[in-house]
């Protein structure tokens, strides 16, 4: 049975790591070739406007993840050191008690239609709801593919907002987007309904766009981090969580740590990470900004972690279907639906949060950060090849990770080699 529990992955060469990923995820030779190449400029030029060049971001593989009994290797694209190592480490701790368990709701997105110039908003609301089935029918005409897959517009809700410009009637279309992120699908449906809604209400429609606050599309993950693995860090993490729960200044950084992991996987799979970011933070703010994770200590004295957030991601559609490396990242993940993918993302978010809190509540975050950061500083100071690690090691041992010191060490090492 293949396992993602791989010890010493970080000590291997890039080629050796690639070999393991290749075997684990049954990648083909053409996939490996694709991963080694930069993105085709013609594809890039079709993805966005005014393309001039490409930006490279390293992709690391997080190991050790066991989610709902299935092993995963998780590609993470990120420029920040420590994130991939921290995720792998947290996943290792969670594995001792069976790894992560995760669940998700149906993939229901909300599209908003803004109706103004209405004097009698409750009459408008009534007329819209009275015509619900017809509105759903019109919306579903726009996307027969989605409907054939069991998705499509499922419900209509109406809200009345009291604004400076008078009452606004806001129609929400609730759309099951199956394995898509769903923005295009929902926006198309929302636009198609506008004339009909103007007709039945006598109002004027302005905006027709999805909401990134996807409260009906939630992913939840849960894991036990045993005291036998982390000792007194249980109490430290519990205190760190309580701080984030009651203080928005701390909660912002706490949630940023969660998104370090989630965004990295979203970028590796060319998903819209801004959409998930916006949804996550808005969800955290629904009743006053707070932590997206929750921790408890169980009867055995182990730490139990829980996360709940909206995760609007796709395994079809958008750039995730056009970017060749995104397709291979999905192959590495071996994920078959958007729901499964959202459950992986919630688990990664919980793992990342646990790892950050553990570091913060014990030795502090800088020690782990510094050894990786030291390499960047060494490169900034002009070190190349073997000298990067040598300069970094000396700076870390001296606890002086600064460019000026890196330059001095580099100079000295170069002179010794002359
Ligand atoms: P899409 O339109 O490319 O693909 C979705 C379509 O694929 C569906 O409408 C359906 O017809 C078809 N499909 C085939 N197989 C499917 C399956 N198994 N499940 C679901 N659909 C299937 O993509 P999208 O997901 O509708 O839109 C995503 C894009 O929209 C992203 O690139 C995002 O950046 C962008 N976007 C985001 C926002 C926002 O977040 N506010 C706004 C506008 C656009």
Structure in words:
The chain has 418 residues and is α+β, with helices and mostly antiparallel strands. 51% of the residues lie in helices and 20% in strands. It is built from 17 helices and ten strands. The chain has helices spanning 14-25, 29-36, 41-47, 83-95, 121-130, 132-141, 144-148, 183-201, 227-230, 233-246, 248-268, 273-284, 324-333, 338-361, 366-380, 386-398, 403-417; strands at 59-67, 70-77, 101-104, 108-116, 152-163, 166-176, 204-211, 218-225, 293-297, 303-310. The strands form three sheets. The protein has a four-stranded antiparallel β-sheet. The longest helix has 24 residues, at 338-361. The chain is globular, with a radius of gyration of 25 Å. The mean pLDDT is 96. The site of nicotinamide-adenine-dinucleotide (NAD) has 24 residues, from helix 7 and helix 8.
User: Structural class, from helix and strand content?
Assistant: alpha+beta
Q: What's the tally of helices?
A: 17
Could you report the average pLDDT, rounded to the nearest whole number?
96
C-alpha end-to-end distance: 52 Å
- Percentage of residues assigned to helices: 40-55%
Global outline = globular
Strand order in the sheet with the most strands: 3-8-10-9
Q: Which ions and ligands are bound to the chains?
A: nicotinamide-adenine-dinucleotide
| % residues in beta strands | 15-25%
State the total count of DSSP E strands.
10
Describe the sheet with the most strands.
4 strands, antiparallel
Poorly predicted residue ranges: none
Question: Element order, helices and strands?
Answer: HHHEEHEEHHHEEHEEHHHHEEHHHHH
| Gyration radius from CA atoms, angstroms | 25 Å
